[in-house]
Amino acid sequence: QVQLVESGGGLVQPGGSLRLSCAASGRIFTIMGWYRQAPGKQRELVATITRGGRINYADSVKGRFTISRDNAKNTVSLQMNSLKPEDTAVYYCNAQSITSMAFWGQGTQVTVSS
Fold this sequence. Notes:
Blueprint lengths: L2 E5 L2 E3 L5 E8 L3 E9 L6 E7 L4 E3 L7 E6 L4 E6 L8 E9 L4 E3 L3 E5 L2
Parallel strand pairs: 2-11
Antiparallel strand pairs: 1-3, 3-8, 4-5, 4-9, 5-6, 7-8, 9-10, 9-11
């Protein structure tokens, strides 16, 4: 049974930092990453990282967010710095298996507000 358990969301002031973590179990995952969905908007990619360490960022977070992964522990993290109000969203952990099945976490709320 596949499980993705996220942690680390919360309320932060503009310019602040948060770190999201996701612990995955049940499969070997090739690509892991983070997506987000703001109210009234479609879910969008934030960052992904392959098992080999290849990283992709959305243009809107480049230079501010850093994704990392621990293959041995099956975890993926997202360090978010210089947060802006437009980063407010529900953030979802995503993991893709070697058979290209996609799995999602339950989501964690990130709110950037003064």
